[in-house]
Amino acid sequence: MSGTNALSGLTVIAAIAAAGAAVYLHNQIIGYVAIFLAMINVIGGFGVTERMLHMFKDGKEKSHE
Questions:
Q1: CA dihedral (5, 11, 13, 19) positive or negative
Q2: Residues 54, 59, 61, CA angle at the centre, nearest 5°?
Q3: Res 62: pLDDT
Q4: How buried is 6 (Cβ within 10 angstroms: 0-12 exposed, 13-18 middle, 19+ buried)?
Q5: Mind listing the pLDDT tens digit for each residue in 25-62?
Q6: Spatial distance between the Cα atoms of 19 and 34, rounded to a whole number of angstroms
Q7: Consecutive H or E run containing 22
């Protein structure tokens, strides 16, 4: 899961580069939208990973009781 999150981080960097290199306003707006959507993807990926880790952690704690 962390590898997929790292790839999503590269998508954010590429979107920043695309927005920065854009000459026309509408291309910059598309770049900013790409940054926003890529950040949602990164945050969601970390959220899913966190939930999965808690799910496995809670399962181990219950078996010890």
A1: negative
A2: 95
A3: 56
A4: exposed
A5: 999 999 999 999 999 988 988 888 888 888 887 655 55
A6: 8
A7: none
